[in-house]
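Structure, all two chains, one model.
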Amino acid sequence: MTILYEFLSASGLAAATWGHAVMILIGMVMIILAIVRRYEPLLLVPIGFGIMLGNIPMMGGGGHGVYDEGSVLYYIYFGVREGVFPPLIFLGIGAMTDFSAMLSNPRLVLLGAAAQIGIFLTLLGAMAIGFTPAESGAIAIIGGADGPTAIFLSSKLAPHLLAMIAIASYSYMALVPIIQPPIMRLFTTRQERLIRMAPPRAVSQREKIIFPIVAFIIAAMIAPDSIVLVGMLFFGNLLKECGVTERLANTARTSMIDIVTILLGFSVGASTQASAFLTLESLFIFTLGVVSFCIATTGGVLFAKFLNLFVKDKINPLIGAAGVSAVPMAARVAQVEAHREDPRNFLLFHAMAPNVAGVLGSAIAAGILWSVLVGG
Amino acid sequence: MSNPLYTGWQRILEGQGLEVAFTGMFIVFLALAAISFCIAMLPRVVAALGGMLPEHPHNPTGTDSPQDDEAVAAAIGFALNEKNNHR
């Protein structure tokens, strides 16, 4: 009987608090959303399970968590803590991204820039609430709707907020089909949503090969601190397009990105511990994150309408919302919204242009915030 | 969280928030506008470069280019010929 009592008092049940229960519940909800509703399952399943694992209470710490030096999870989390995983994910994204949409209609790149306004306005909001400039920068990047970028920047600017920012970022990416459509409808007229865009021009293989080299040099020269992310993105894309490194590109876009996603998602999930996660600060971060996301969507849509004042071939402003990155979900949402108004209007290809430009824009914004706010 | 006595606006000014936000937005626009301009110029650059870059990517497996097909066919033919000669 004494042995049983000792066993039970050393078990997770004895050390459990309501905080642990809530976090485990959050993990379960993420897994259910991923499996039942198919919301970003490749991300939410590892994160959700990681949250459950990270919140199993242990008497005396246990020494198995991501913050316990020497534990297995500690070494896996190294890739998140030191910002190793995000550039590797960017390499994979580069190797799977087709920039044809952007190359065939370069003016749409500007929509990807306009959507980054969410990041910079949220920076001001976070500062006003009372976060330090570095924390504000890390929180603001949620508006870029790019999980790896958010993790990379928060690991540099505000490591103590990393878990919350990562979860907020991935959650909102998964919720793109819910958050964006009302904003898109609010800021566009039916007439605008019905705009059919001119068919894109064909893009030659030579252009696809030259583009990542030229775009990398431009981005790196203008925002040198973005080279880690932008460099890996364009390196991956060059592997894909040059035609002589198909094996490397294939590994980068399949096995490698899958492995890194598993490790990143799982360890980020495991880093969310109830004591640090269930706080007022988290509530502010989640609120600022969704505000940032909404502003970014609005910025893209309104800038598309602004461009329409000057161009002959009109842009359907719905694709402006795709400037928030969240590839390819945001582009799909633009397509679905256009399709709802006119079943024969196909915007997906056009929407991919601001979508991939948004990835670039948020990586550049992250580089800028890192260089200006580090240590702030 | 920093000192709650400051108003939000003061905090923004103190953290140089406006400068960071405006400069950041400007640089993002500048970078993407420059990329956009270069993309618009790409067809001309490509035309100028002419045949320096392949229009169609090489096949990394190296199995279905016409030359390779001929080489494989020749090898198979040689092997069959050798086999028949030994019978």
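Chain A has a mean pLDDT of 92.
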